[in-house]
Amino acid sequence: MMKSKGIDYHFIGSLDDIAYVLNIRANDVQCNPVVISYLLVSENSCNLYIDKSKLSQEVADYLKENNISIKAYEVIARDISDIEAKKTLYLETKKTNVAVYSSIGRGVNVVTGLNLTSIMKCHKNEIEIKNTKNAFIKDGVALVRYLNWLETGVSTGTITEMIASEKLLEFRKQQDLFIEDSFESISAYGANASMPHYKPSHEHPVKVEPRGLYLIDSGGHYLDGTTDITRTVALGELKPEEIYHYTLVLKAHIALMEAKFLEGTNGGYLDAFTRYNLWKQRINFNHGTGHGVGHVLNVHEGPQRIGTAGNEYPMEVGMVTSDEPGIYISGSHGIRIESIMVCVKDEMTEFGQFLKFDNLTVVPIDTRPVDKSLMSEEEITWLNDYNKMCYEKLSPYLSGHDLEYLREQCKEI
Amino acid sequence: MMKSKGIDYHFIGSLDDIAYVLNIRANDVQCNPVVISYLLVSENSCNLYIDKSKLSQEVADYLKENNISIKAYEVIARDISDIEAKKTLYLETKKTNVAVYSSIGRGVNVVTGLNLTSIMKCHKNEIEIKNTKNAFIKDGVALVRYLNWLETGVSTGTITEMIASEKLLEFRKQQDLFIEDSFESISAYGANASMPHYKPSHEHPVKVEPRGLYLIDSGGHYLDGTTDITRTVALGELKPEEIYHYTLVLKAHIALMEAKFLEGTNGGYLDAFTRYNLWKQRINFNHGTGHGVGHVLNVHEGPQRIGTAGNEYPMEVGMVTSDEPGIYISGSHGIRIESIMVCVKDEMTEFGQFLKFDNLTVVPIDTRPVDKSLMSEEEITWLNDYNKMCYEKLSPYLSGHDLEYLREQCKEI
């Protein structure tokens, strides 16, 4: 890849790219299983700049076997400055710090672009996708147990947003190959959910009560995949506006999930599919519709992104991306429905190769806040099919009250 | 405008911009009422470079009154080369030829961007819009008379695509203030309509027959406005595929026409609204969805454009743009439905200022090829309301068979 592009050296400064290309994982950064390091690759060498004490003997041996040289973290600048004039150095400016950039010697031909590893890692291979599907089933089991626990316990008046959040982690920990949360959970009740990036705390405990909407946005790293999911559930009586907005968010979610699009279509274009119906109601949400998701790596990963502006990178086969529209009414309520999907080939027609999304997330979508009269036949069928699929995939792993709860949540409307 | 941007000289090489800013029209180019010329504007001078013999005394006097100096067409390069070093010269590279560009002297500070006149002229003022609405009613009267003539005559077996096209021009000529066609009409029967830019001819006469679909894409310059319209009509029995595709095109047309969008949304984003449902059926069309329309000027005008790629200019209040999705099945049939719309303010909500489109075109949309079962309630209502509006606006100007035809075409479905 480097040779065909005439690149002599490729500097890589993004930790998830280094973890990906070397196939190593660590815990230097909370929620991101990466190790603080730099990588400098040439045709004949591959240097990893890292605090050696972080490497276990096993990893050190593995790297040695693969001809990766270990160098001290600090010497990167010197090695960069040693690159001779007329050589071509490739790097991604957004992922290169000033210290490194300013050590580049005179006469070096600097070529910039996305890290080549980013372009490789965003296309998940068959094994990554197969494993990820498995991780999502385990995550679905944890979520259903959690939601059943929450809905059962909420009437006791003892559950706060933070207690709930910790309980969810417990349920995830019971699952095979679980590593850690993939980001800090957003466990938000009522008006708090109107802040898309809300963070609950023990210092300001907020009780979850048996009325209104509760939003949980969370995810886990498993050794076989990374998850990220948002569900909003009805804990009791709802205001008409909550039902109206929930239904609109669900319609927006389905619109993107069910889209077919020509090869080459980018995330800026796909974003419009989601917002069309919301905008018709003069409603908008101020965040992207979808972000790439790493494989046992950062839960936010590029280069693809579904959003209103500046998302030129095309959506391609193998990319794993979220679909998460929302509506936020300050001081009242917040709704978001997020599932993760993988881009796959659809039909090839006389008009070109079409692509579509396969849904990876396996957690029922609450039907209690749905106003069926606002849904098309097609949307109702989608919702019933989705929940039926959840029942089929999750029921073998659940029993007793959890299974009953799942059955109730997956009922046709 | 120039002063605030620190511009000393503005070179304008696009003929429609010159016609716009000087408020003159001519007939140097077929279908485009412009005059071959250059314009060089500074704070204290405005030079028009033109073949003087083209100016009538009236226009010459008008220009003189407005302090426009007339110079020979050829001296532009010399005047450009006379611009002193350190002065700022503003121009649009795409609208500047090499001869002019290469005469710029050393040390001149060249700043490039859209011609400032383009940005002014794309926002139609109230008078332009009011006059344009009037032109569209006259154009609608001509179109209805034409379609009635066509449908009545088609059974005689004597009408060719070209004869039809000429007849349409006759009907337009009967209208007040008509100048000329705004582009060469695309009068296309059956399989010929599958070529979006088809050109009928007398050399290869094609008979229009009483079956299948006929497409007419045409427009006129009137002294009060420029029109551009496409209608596809059923001349008799249709194949199921023609009905299916016609209905899909109509749905795509309505989707854009009924869109609401936040201020700042560009034509690339709006394009997705049109194609979403077509793509779901794995169908696409290989042309833009909408182009700007000049006011008694070029029928294709920027900077806004609704299309899949590279259309970054936002859709703004006062812009007049077409909405013309299509489906083309090579060797079989072609369908396009085009109306012209003006961007206006919609509601301001807590989510921002929304914009929408007002439809300017007043020609009924044929309901005979519509498969109602594929239309939503909302779409059916839109179609009936649109045709009702056409009846109300056009019926005062029609009588006899023409009025009967209009009534039939505007019937509710």
Report on the architecture of this protein.
Chain A has 413 residues and is an alpha+beta fold. Chain A has two domains: 9-121, Creatinase/prolidase N-terminal domain (Creatine Amidinohydrolase, Chain A, domain 1, 3-Layer(aba) Sandwich), CATH 3.40.350; 126-409, Creatinase/methionine aminopeptidase superfamily (Creatine Amidinohydrolase), CATH 3.90.230. Helices cover 32% and strands 22% of the residues of chain A. The longest helix of chain A is centred in the middle third of the chain and has 28 residues, at 126-153. Chain A is globular, with a radius of gyration of 23 Å. The mean pLDDT of chain A is 94.
Q: What is the CATH architecture assignment of the largest domain in chain A? A: Alpha-Beta Complex
The third-level CATH topology of the largest domain in chain A is Creatine Amidinohydrolase
The CATH superfamily of the largest domain in chain A turns out to be Creatinase/methionine aminopeptidase superfamily
Q: Termini of chain A, distance in Å?
A: 52 Å
Structural class of chain A: alpha+beta
Major beta sheet, strand line-up of chain A: 4-3-2-1-5-6
* Sheet with the most strands, sense and barrel status of chain A: 6 strands, mixed
Please give the most extensive interface between any two protein chains, plus how many residues each contributes: A-B, 29 and 29 residues
Tertiary shape of chain A:
globular
Proportion of residues in β-strands of chain A: 15-25%
